Amino acid sequence: MSLTYTFKTDQLTKENIQQLFLSVEWESASHPNDLYNAILNSHSVATAWDGGRLIGLANAMSDGSMAVYFHYVLTDPDCQGQGAGKEIMKMMLEKYNDMHTKVLVSYPKAVGFYESLGFEPEETSTPMYVFSS
């Protein structure tokens, strides 16, 4: 496996984004048009590729000055453990190094991964959501 990493979005398509999200069984994949638009309208997107196959992605939303929120961070399960997720998050953390606040919401099984990158749980706050159908 020869992985490449980029912030360029010219290779992203509705299909390869949806396929990646389907690989991790995320509900977002059932909204391919909205998902594609969300990714392309992100403040930035870091991707991992195995040849022409999208195998990892992280996107950021930011005010450009104080805070950045990493919304989607995912790696195709067939490629997990190869360092792709860590590399795209390192790219993001370097890009947003000067931000005062860097935030993400982690699934419980991924907490250790994010802790290895320097993230810590915030004991005085709770993530809150409003979901629309």
From TrEMBL:
Any one Gene Ontology molecular-function term assigned to this protein's record: acyltransferase activity
Keywords: Acyltransferase, Transferase
Coiled-coil intervals, chain numbering: none
EC code(s) of this entry: 2.3.1.-
Enzyme class: transferase
All residue ranges annotated as the N-acetyltransferase domain in the record: 7-133
PANTHER family assigned: ACYL-COA N-ACYLTRANSFERASE, GCN5-RELATED N-ACETYLTRANSFERASE 2, CHLOROPLASTIC
Protein name as it appears in the record: GNAT family N-acetyltransferase
